From TrEMBL:
Active-site residues per Swiss-Prot or TrEMBL entry: 74 (proton donor/acceptor), 183 (proton donor/acceptor)
Biological process terms in GO annotation: cell wall organization; peptidoglycan biosynthetic process; regulation of cell shape
Gene label: murI
Name of the protein this chain belongs to: Glutamate racemase
InterPro entries for the chain: Asp/Glu/hydantoin_racemase (IPR015942), Asp/Glu_race (IPR001920), Asp/Glu_racemase_AS_1 (IPR018187), Glu_race (IPR004391)
Keyword Oxidoreductase found: no
Catalytic activity, EC: 5.1.1.3
């Protein structure tokens, strides 16, 4: 089975490019279309209804582009809207959820930390998953302000360092040995986070797992492309400068209202 249509990927902004990049590394021949809904970021402080409506708007755009599969490269949109998307559209969706399972299963201290948006930590889907790990203490922290600083291109600012220190120090004090990054924007903060965490604390995100899952669904249900190489397209509905720079000016970034 083959299928030359593109894979669609969306996020509230530029953060999902961390997931896109894992997909592009594993499946370089596949054409990908990435939507950064930066105009509406952050999603993390919005209501479930707003997140569902924004997610549907993004999916409609990607379906107009004939996408064969959609990756919801946003924990907040996945945990609040993936059920509604799967109910309303006849196309496979791959979501991204905080990787608490590998962290809890491998933790020696039985204490893990999770940094995510308020929307993710308050969602029913996240709480149901967390309840499955009764023997592990999960220290939850909302990353207030982090997404906005990333969207504004202030990754290495003093404000960023101060926020991260205030969120991570209580976790270090509580003896975590795993930190789960439950927001697709946060992998861009790994260098700064590593400066704060002691070396033995491992950081986990979900990028590679989502890429492998995408490969499985293409193999089982949708079909791989016959193309030898494809250039990705990135659409953004606000100023494209930060997206272009996070992609190191290597790809086609188009500013468009959607
Ligand atoms: N990147 C998103 C996530 O994975 C959402 C960030 C936001 O818009 O608040 O949760």
């Amino acid at each position: 089975m083959t299928n030359d249509n593109p894979i669609g990927v969306f996020d509230s902004g530029i953060g999902g490019t961390s997931i896109w990049s894992a997909i592009h590394d594993l499946l370089p021949n596949e054409k990908t279309i990435y939507l950064a809904d930066s105009k509406n970021a952050p999603y993390g402080q919005k209501t479930k209804e707003q997140i569902v409506a924004l997610s549907k708007k993004n999916v409609d755009f990607l379906l107009e582009m004939k996408c064969k599969l959609i990756v919801v490269a946003c924990n907040t949109a996945t945990t609040n809207a993936i059920r509604e998307l799967r109910n309303d559209y006849d196309i496979p969706f791959i979501g991204i959820e905080p990787a608490i399972k590998p962290a809890a299963n491998n933790s020696k201290t039985q204490v893990i930390g999770i940094l995510a948006t308020k929307g993710t930590l308050n969602s029913e889907l996240f709480n149901k998953t967390a309840e499955m790990f009764q023997n592990t203490t999960i220290i939850e922290q909302v990353g207030y302000g982090l997404v906005q600083l990333i969207e504004d291109g202030n990754l290495y600012s003093t404000e960023m360092t101060q926020l991260l220190e205030s969120y991570l120090q209580p976790m270090i004090d509580a003896n975590i040995d795993y930190l789960v990054l439950g927001c697709s924007h946060y992998p861009y903060l790994i260098p700064q986070i590593k400066k704060i965490l002691p070396e033995h604390i491992q950081i986990i995100d979900s990028g590679e797992a989502v890429a492998r899952q995408t490969q499985n669904i293409l193999r089982e249900k949708v079909g791989f492309t016959t193309a030898q190489k494809s250039e990705p397209i990135f659409y953004v509905n606000s100023n494209p400068v930060v997206l272009d720079s996070i992609l190191e000016h290597k790809y086609n970034v188009v500013q468009k209202d959607f």
